[in-house]
Design brief:
This protein folds into 2 domains: 121 residues, Aspartate Aminotransferase, domain 1 (Alpha-Beta Complex), CATH 3.90.1150; 225 residues, Type I PLP-dependent aspartate aminotransferase-like (Major domain) (Aspartate Aminotransferase, domain 2), CATH 3.40.640.10. The termini are far apart. A hairpin with a 6-residue loop joins strand 9 and strand 10. The chain is α/β, with parallel strands linked by helices. Bound molecules: 4'-deoxy-4'-aminopyridoxal-5'-phosphate and glutamine.
């Protein structure tokens, strides 16, 4: 079909997301897909049964706009239990169509034309476009390589009277780094007595290793008072395709987000919300995740140790960065494509997570895979 008019793009610089590009290529050439982050193993049959039961019982119509109350209550109970923080399920918790929708609604509700937001790169790809769609401007700070720690003096230098929001993400996609208590205290310090709100993307809250505590903003009451916390059951219950997430925030902030959420999706999937509410009651269902994924990380890194890739430590998430500078000086995108096509293992280049496509010769590999997949992929990587 031919459109005769002129389209002025609202996102002129946006192409197709790197996750779609690399997964598409992996499927096309039949490569082992360690690119886009999603598990290749079955999810809990108990959870599937719960969804089925709720569907059979007739829970198939619109959920309440903020989400099923039983699920909001379960999330509030879990937050109290884990962090000792009280969120009111009625006014301070909202269920979203995946964390992505939550992120979009938070940014859209907060950013006015002319506002600025600080994003720490490499960063998840959905933050900046949402700021731009609102007429805001993004100020970028880079994590310090190779530790991937936050350069707080730089973040501080980006703050001015127009700064409306700072985005953080811990455990961090794509690097696998985590924020420390000192980082959270610094964030608390630099945003105190200001109108700056924090969007804390904590979708990998349960994917953290070596006994480290996940440093949620929820542990810091004054910081939590000016923060949106973003969560995703896609990560916690291996159900990325179900697109069910949540936001926690003080009532005044949440009221603004709900105004947007109601016009973006109105409400998310009903039977899944009821099922997740039940499934959350057994804490083991999420408390076993660190050990479960740490075993996969250790298996993968143990095998890749024999290769020419350099392992950059992963402290959380289901991602492992590998530095290939000893193998090639190709650009990350070119090397990732070549390894997918020639060797049959797909990964994600890190450069698309930077607005200036900074290239440090590192690729991201997802280890949310069966042992068999990880062993096969590592064997191939050892031949490169
Ligand atoms: N934030 C980060 C850091 C992520 O890695 C993801 C997963 N793609 C999301 C948000 C979005 O999560 P969801 O799939 O629940 O929309
Ligand atoms: N979060 C996943 C990743 O980082 C996938 C996200 C997506 O496909 N949009 O790979």
């Amino acid at each position: 079909m031919k459109f005769q008019g002129h389209v002025k793009s609202r996102l002129p610089n946006a192409g197709t997301s790197i996750f779609a590009v690399m997964s598409g290529l992996a499927n096309e050439v039949g490569a082992i897909n360690l690119s886009q982050g999603f598990p290749d193993f079955p999810i809990s049959m108990e959870l599937v049964e719960l969804v089925n039961q709720y569907m059979h019982k007739g829970f198939n119509q619109y959920a309440p706009m903020p989400g099923v109350l039983a699920l909001r209550e379960a999330i509030a109970a879990k937050a109290f239990d884990t962090f000792g923080i009280t969120y009111d399920p009625a006014t301070e918790i909202n269920i979203t169509a995946g964390a992505t929708e939550g992120i979009f609604c938070v940014i859209t509700a907060m950013i006015h034309p002319g506002d600025e937001a600080v994003i720490i790169e490499p960063a998840y790809d959905s933050y900046a476009p949402a700021v731009e769609l609102c007429g805001g401007t993004v100020r970028y700070s880079s994590l310090m390589v190779p530790s991937y720690s936050v350069n707080w003096p730089e973040v501080k230098s980006l703050i001015n009277s127009r700064t409306k929001m700072i985005m953080i993400n811990t455990p961090h996609n794509p690097t696998g780094s985590v924020l420390s208590a000192a980082d959270l205290k610094e964030l608390d310090h630099i945003t105190r007595n200001s109108n700056i709100v924090v969007m804390s993307d904590e979708v990998y809250e349960h994917l953290i290793f070596d006994g480290t505590r996940h440093e949620s903003v929820c542990y810091y009451p004054e910081l939590a008072e000016r923060s949106f916390v973003i969560g995703s059951f896609g990560k916690t219950f291996h159900t990325t395709g179900w697109k069910t997430g949540f936001i926690m925030a003080p009532a005044v902030l949440m009221a603004e987000v709900r105004k947007v959420h109601q016009f973006v999706v109105f409400a998310s999937n009903t039977p899944i919300q009821y099922a997740v509410a039940d499934y959350l009651k057994n804490k083991e269902n999420y408390l076993q995740l660190p050990a479960f994924y740490q075993q996969k990380r250790d298996l993968f890194t143990g095998l890749v140790k024999g290769s020419r890739f350099k392992i950059i430590p992963s402290y959380g998430t289901y991602f492992q960065l590998l530095d290939y500078s000893a193998i090639s000086d190709e650009k990350e995108m070119d090397f990732a494509v070549r390894v997918t096509k020639e060797f049959g293992v797909a990964s994600v280049p890190v450069s698309p997570f930077y607005h200036d496509k900074q290239d440090n010769h590192v690729l991201r590999f997802c280890f949310a895979k069966t042992e068999k997949t990880l062993i096969k992929a590592a064997e191939i990587l050892c031949t490169i």
